[in-house]
């Protein structure tokens, strides 16, 4: 923890305030107090009426909700390691308490004789949720917690949300949208995961092959990176559109492609576009990882009588694995987000709910598609990041 030093006495002063944490909690406090926390509508068609946090929970509940925010502000003012741990616990507790607060708002604002009434989550709650997650990341970084431990902290608010959603959040608009589209929602998640898995798998195989070719031939390296960088400059929607006409022609004139279901719309153009976008981070990380292995280690392996193949499999590849895994992490998170756009060309996935919701001005349907994508990206980032850390630790030992 950074501390100032008194020039006259040479003694260390108290820790300096954590400006990042102070800023995040101050903005959270302002957003929670000033923005609408929830909205209530008698049905899906009528626009909801916004309610501030003090209206939703009453003045006692509102004032109680301010206590942990003020406590974190006080702890961030003199942030030694013990106080940062307390601040971390309070931030996790606030995240876990948000569903309970929504349940209290539902009990106070939603009338029991209106079964179609819906409780929408307002800007105040979304801003508070976003800023508290940033505060969680800041505290994890300051305390030097591992990715695994930092990711496991999110299990507490997720478990709280799942529990409250099951029992006491029946009027929540997002829950009602899910219940009305449960079968389609599950099918969309499966389609989304299949597209992401296929794109990452194909790009991994092609990426390793291209990286090996680039290491062998310098001309291939220059041309390959030029083409891959060019693909990254094309907007995703434009790339999906450019593939429609050639794939439609191929599907109509090549029998075996038609038998595979290749056409101008659907999964084929979506998969090709996703692979195109995924290749640059995969190739770049694989190339750098293989190229930067210590030459002394390679010479030692050859001196032990290893063949070229043995050197690659047993020495170069294991040493390059952490950076290659980092490329897989970046590619996976990127593909999870880009797959949402593939719904515009009939590829399915969670993007279907996003674009249907935008067309119907139904923000809860948009959230039904967007929130699982966010959760998938966070889970993939945490798991692959933890695997990368484990690989680095194994390499160090």
Automatic annotation (TrEMBL):
The ABC transmembrane type-1 domain sits at 189-384
Q: Which UniProt keywords apply?
A: Membrane, Transmembrane, Transmembrane helix, Transport
Q: What is its main location?
A: membrane
Give one Pfam family.
Answer: BPD_transp_1
Record-linked CDD domains: TM_PBP2 (cd06261)
State the InterPro entries in the record. ABC_transp_perm/SBD, MetI-like, MetI-like_sf
The subcellular location is: Cell membrane
| Residues passing through the membrane, by range | 20-38, 58-77, 84-107, 119-137, 144-165, 185-213, 225-250, 256-280, 335-359, 365-387
Membrane topology label: Multi-pass membrane protein
Which family, according to the similarity comment? Belongs to the binding-protein-dependent transport system permease family.
UniProt name for this protein: ABC transporter permease
* Annotated source species: Halomonas salina
């Amino acid at each position: 923890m950074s501390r100032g030093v008194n020039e006259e006495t040479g003694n260390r002063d108290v820790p300096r305030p954590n400006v990042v944490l102070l800023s995040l909690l101050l903005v959270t406090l302002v957003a929670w107090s000033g923005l609408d926390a929830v909205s209530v509508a008698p049905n899906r068609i009528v626009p909801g009426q916004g309610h501030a946090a003090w209206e939703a929970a009453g003045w006692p509940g509102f004032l109680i909700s301010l206590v942990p925010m003020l406590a974190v502000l006080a702890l961030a003012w003199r942030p030694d390691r013990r106080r940062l741990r307390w601040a971390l616990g309070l931030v996790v507790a606030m995240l876990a308490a948000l569903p309970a607060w929504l349940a209290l708002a539902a009990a106070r604002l939603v009338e029991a004789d209106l079964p179609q009434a819906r409780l929408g989550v307002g800007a105040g709650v979304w801003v508070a949720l976003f800023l508290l997650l940033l505060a969680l990341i800041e505290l994890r970084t300051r305390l030097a917690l591992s990715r695994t431990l930092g990711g496991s902290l999110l299990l507490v608010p997720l478990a709280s949300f799942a529990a409250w959603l099951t029992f006491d959040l029946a009027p929540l608009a997002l829950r009602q949208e899910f219940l009305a589209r449960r079968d389609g929602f599950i099918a969309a998640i499966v389609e989304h995961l299949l597209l992401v898995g296929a794109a990452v798998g194909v790009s991994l195989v092609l990426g390793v092959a291209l990286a090996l070719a680039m290491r062998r031939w310098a001309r291939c390296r220059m041309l390959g990176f030029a083409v891959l960088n060019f693909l990254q400059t094309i907007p995703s929607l434009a790339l999906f559109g450019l593939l429609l006409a050639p794939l439609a022609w191929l599907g109509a004139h090549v029998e075996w492609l038609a038998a595979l279901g290749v056409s101008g719309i659907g999964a084929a153009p979506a998969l090709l576009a996703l692979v195109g976008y995924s290749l640059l981070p995969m190739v770049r990380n694989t190339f750098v990882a293989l190229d930067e292995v210590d030459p002394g280690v390679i010479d030692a392996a050859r001196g032990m009588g290893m063949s070229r193949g043995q050197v690659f499999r047993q020495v170069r590849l294991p040493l390059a694995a952490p950076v290659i895994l980092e490329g897989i992490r970046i590619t996976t998170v990127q593909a999870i987000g880009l797959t949402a756009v593939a719904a515009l060309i009939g590829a399915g996935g969670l993007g279907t709910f996003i674009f249907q919701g935008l067309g119907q001005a139904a923000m809860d349907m948009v959230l039904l598609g967007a929130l699982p994508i966010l959760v998938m990206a966070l889970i993939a980032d945490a798991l692959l990041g933890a695997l990368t850390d484990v690989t680095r630790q194994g390499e160090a030992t």
